[in-house]
Amino acid sequence: MSNGKADIGLIGLAVMGQNLVLNMNDHGYTVAVFNRTVSKVDDFLANEAKGTKVIGTHSLAELVAALKKPRRVFLLVKAGAPVDEFIEALLPLLERGDIIIDGGNSHFPDTIRRAAHVESKGLLYIGTGVSGGEEGARRGPSLMPGGSPAAWPHVKPIFQSICARTPEGEPCCDWVGENGAGHYVKMVHNGIEYGDMQLIAESYHLMKEGLGLSNEAMHRIFAGWNEGELDSYLIEITRDILDTKDAEGRYVLDLILDTAGQKGTGKWAVVSASDLGVPVTLVAEAVFGRALSARKDERVAASTLLPGPRPAFEGDKGAFVEDIRRAMYASKIASYAQGYMLMAEAAKEHGWNLNYGGIALMWRGGCIIRSRFLGKIRDAFAADPRLRNLLLDGFFRKVIEECQPGWRRVVSRAAEMGIPLPAMSSALAFYDGYRRAWLPANLLQAQRDYFGAHTYERVDEPRGRFFHFNWTGRGGRVSSSTYNV
Questions:
Q1: What is the reported pTM?
Q2: Host H or E run for residue 10
Q3: More confidently predicted of 329 and 474
């Protein structure tokens, strides 16, 4: 045992880092801290960490010397090059069996590479997703650790002490899998988060422009939704946003420019889905919806030139609001089904043994997509750990059956009114495609074979045998290679 006093070290004292340190301190752990701008260490100790057991250090060597063995060093720095730089600086100071933990929003291929590199030096590595924002870091985040399995027993007590808990008291943290699995699951979480936010925004758009409802009326609707099946953090904060006014009595929401930003994790999920051939269509539409919103000047100019219907609703507004709720619920199920399809395909690609019910539990509290709904996903995988798709689970099949008429009415009515619903409509298209025994891809393959001799499979031959037809009578017997996802 070393002479160190600290249970864990943390590098990076931005707000997330500070809050995680205070969270660990609250749970009885002594934390040593370091920051590249050393003055932040002293400032933190003099203010937010005053009166705590936190140990301030002014160099990496001093940080390492303050730690008990095996040393656990938690990096909470900007993703990318800074992570690699700190790893390289730490490696000469650490010993075999010590653990480096990256808690930033790192891209999973980087985590796979870093885990292999650190393990080659005799050390252990963890890349962990951390969700819940600043408040989650302080009061209990969702944690998604993956990397070197031998490291997990050494961090499990700390992680499961500081993480969020379900209403039943279960920790929203468990081991995800090898190398980049933790950061992959966090990436999928963020992609689903994009989708959930887009679905809520589309519902708001329908009620605001389609039905002409006031912020006050929409506030009451979201408050009601948060008491039922859609109970979630994002519905809850939307309820509050719709009711918030500034000092002059103006709704803050109405003062915000309609251009959305993004940090890239949703895009990563879509790129990975494309690489693996998984139809994560709702997240893709959510990412591209933000990209379209960013073209504000173009949209303003186009609004004066391009024709289309003006939103005008006739009928029972209350009934249509209920249809919107059902459309959102059904679309949400489709989105999570896609996210789980993506994780399953990635697990096959990378050799990860993912616990899908456990992932739903990790997301049940602390994170941005936390909701009552996730308990049903956990139940589905508990009933059938080999479940191929959430849409095939009995509970979700019944929900889709109940929601489907309203879902279809919303998508068709929005098209008639000229209100874009990229996420809801793509979710419905995915559902209709998934439930079809036949799709027109035979024509696509015929076209590909006609112009590029790309070959096709036949309905009257075993799968895996490929054929080429001489469509023009002028082609030869040579065919192109084929790429199948």
A1: 0.92
A2: strand 8-11
A3: 329
